[in-house]
Design a protein that fits this description.
Keywords: Hydrolase, Metal-binding, Zinc. By secondary structure, this protein is α+β, with helices and mostly antiparallel strands. The protein folds into two domains: 291 residues, Aminopeptidase, CATH 3.40.630.10; 111 residues, Alpha-Beta Plaits. It has twelve helices and 17 strands.
C-alpha cells in the first residue's frame, strides 16, 4: 500500500478514536483500548512508509527511516549515537481532553517525512518518529512516564507499583494491554537530536500573529498531593462549632493557592479531589486534593508551594484537622539548547518562546540530548479541553516547518 501523505486524511482517521459523543472530548488513557488502537494505527502508517518500527515492553514506539548511504568518516562508518534525528510526541490524552495535544506531533512527523520524500530528500542520518506512552500522567499520576523510563529518570521497579484511580497497578495494566516489560525499553543510543512538534497551549503565537514558533524553555512544574484529615460526622446533628471538617481546610487552601499564584505571576491549580466518605449528609473524614503548580524558576516554584502549604497547615490548626503534603511528580526547569533554537529559528524567522506545559522533550533534554520544540498556533489558547483547536492551514505550516527542521538536522554537514 502506498504511503498516504495527506495530513488531513490521517487526521480524519484519528478523529473518532476515543472521542466522547457527549462532550466531543477525548478519553485516550494509556494501556486502554483507545490508546492501543492508536498505537496499532501508528504501526500501520509507519509500515506503509517502509519505516522500521520498534515497540518496547511498555508500549513506547519508534519508527526509523534509515539512510541509504550512512555518513562515514575516514572510510569507516561513524558511531550512530551522534547522528540520529528523532521527532514525534504522544497519543494519550487527559480525561475529556483535546484532539491536538500529542497526536498533532505524531501526524505532523509522518506528514513531514512524506513531504521530505516529495522534495527528493535523502537522509544521511537516521530519521525517527517516536510515540511515548503516558505523557499526560492522567492515569498513573506521573507525567512523561514513558520518556522518564526510557531515559532512566524513573525505574520500572518504581513505576510498576503505581496505581490508577481504580486501584489497578501499572504493571498489571501493561500486562493486560498485551505488552511484556521483560522485553526491555527503547534505546536512545542512536539519538543525537530530538524535535517535538506540539500545539501551543497558550496564546503567545496568537498575540504575535504567527503560525509557528520554537521553544526556549519549559517552566518547572509539579504535582503535590494534599491529604486533609478530619472527623466524619452527621451533617444535620453536628453543630458547626463542633466540626473538624477537612473540606473547609481544603477550600481555604484552594483560595490561597489562587491568590499566591496571581500575586507571583505563576500557576496553581487544584483540579482533582477525592472525598471520604463522599456522602451528601456527612461531614468528610478525608479530602485528598492534587495541586498542579508551575513557576518561572525552580526557586520561585518551591517558594510558592511552600507558602501554600504553610497557609494550609495554619488553617488546619484552626479547623481541628491535619495536613500531609506529598510531592508526587516534580520536574525542574528545562532550558532548551539555545544555539540549536537560534539555528533553527533562522530557517523561518520563527519566534522563540517559553512554555509552561511539560513535554517529553523536556525529559530528553534533561537527559543530555540536544532538543528543540516546534509550536503550532492555537487560536483560542485553550488546551486540555474539547475546545482545543488548531486551524488546518496552521497545521500544514507546522508540517512544512518540521520538514525544514528535519532536513537541516539531517544534512551531511550539520553539526553532530
Amino acid at each position: 500500500m502506498p504511503p498516504r501523505s495527506d495530513f488531513e486524511e490521517m487526521w480524519r482517521d484519528l478523529a473518532p478514536v476515543g472521542r466522547s459523543a457527549a462532550s466531543g472530548g477525548y478519553f485516550r488513557q494509556p494501556w486502554a483500548s483507545a490508546e492501543s488502537e492508536l498505537r496499532a494505527w501508528f504501526v500501520s502508517e509507519c509500515e506503509s512508509r517502509g519505516l522500521t518500527v520498534e515497540t518496547d515492553g511498555i508500549g513506547n514506539q519508534v519508527a526509523w527511516w534509515e539512510p541509504a548511504c550512512p555518513l562515514v568518516e575516514e572510510g569507516a562508518q561513524r558511531p550512530p549515537r551522534a547522528h540520529g534525528v528523532l521527532t514525534g510526541s504522544h497519543l494519550d490524552s487527559v480525561p475529556d481532553g483535546g484532539a491536538y495535544d500529542g497526536p498533532l506531533g505524531v501526524v505532523s512527523a509522518l506528514a513531514a517525512i512524506d513531504l521530505l520524500r516529495e522534495r527528493g530528500f535523502e537522509p544521511i542520518r537516521p530519521l525517527g518518529v517516536s510515540v511515548f506512552v503516558e505523557e499526560e500522567g492522567s492515569r498513573f499520576g506521573r507525567a512523561c512516564l514513558g520518556s522518564r523510563l526510557v531515559t532512566g529518570a524513573t525505574t520500572w521497579d518504581q513505576a510498576r507499583e503505581l496505581r490508577d484511580r481504580d486501584g489497578v497497578f501499572l504493571g498489571d495494566a501493561v500486562d493486560e494491554a498485551g505488552l511484556d516489560p521483560t522485553q526491555g525499553l527503547l534505546s536512545l543510543d542512536r539519538v543525537g537530536t530530538f524535535v517535538e512538534l506540539h500545539v501551543e497551549q497558550g496564546r503567545d503565537l496568537v498575540d504575535r500573529d504567527v503560525a509557528v514558533g520554537l521553544a526556549s524553555e519549559i517552566w518547572p512544574h509539579g504535582r503535590w498531593r494534599f491529604d486533609f484529615a478530619g472527623q466524619a460526622n452527621h451533617a444535620g446533628t453536628t453543630r458547626m462549632e463542633d466540626r473538624h471538617d477537612p473540606m473547609l481546610t481544603y477550600a481555604m487552601t484552594a483560595l490561597a493557592a489562587n491568590k499566591q499564584a496571581r500575586l507571583a505571576g505563576q500557576r496553581a491549580t487544584f483540579g482533582r479531589i477525592a472525598v471520604e466518605p463522599n456522602g451528601t449528609n456527612a461531614v468528610p473524614s478525608l479530602v485528598t486534593a492534587w495541586l498542579d503548580a508551575r513557576g518561572p524558576s525552580d526557586d520561585a516554584l518551591a517558594e510558592m508551594v511552600g507558602v501554600i502549604a504553610k497557609q494550609a497547615d495554619e488553617r488546619a490548626g484552626r479547623d481541628g484537622t491535619s495536613l500531609v503534603v506529598t510531592p508526587e511528580s516534580v520536574s525542574r526547569s528545562v532550558a532548551f539548547d539555545a544555539d540549536l533554537a537560534a539555528r533553527l529559528a533562522g530557517l523561518g524567522d520563527w519566534p522563540v518562546i517559553p512554555t509552561q506545559a511539560g513535554h517529553d522533550a523536556g525529559i530528553l533534554s534533561d537527559a543530555g540530548i540536544p532538543t528543540a520544540m516546534v509550536f503550532v498556533r492555537n487560536p483560542t489558547g485553550v488546551s486540555h479541553s474539547p475546545d482545543e483547536h488548531a486551524e488546518t492551514a496552521d497545521c500544514l505550516a507546522g508540517v512544512e516547518a518540521l520538514a525544514d527542521v528535519l532536513a537541516e538536522l539531517a544534512r551531511p554537514e550539520a553539526p553532530a
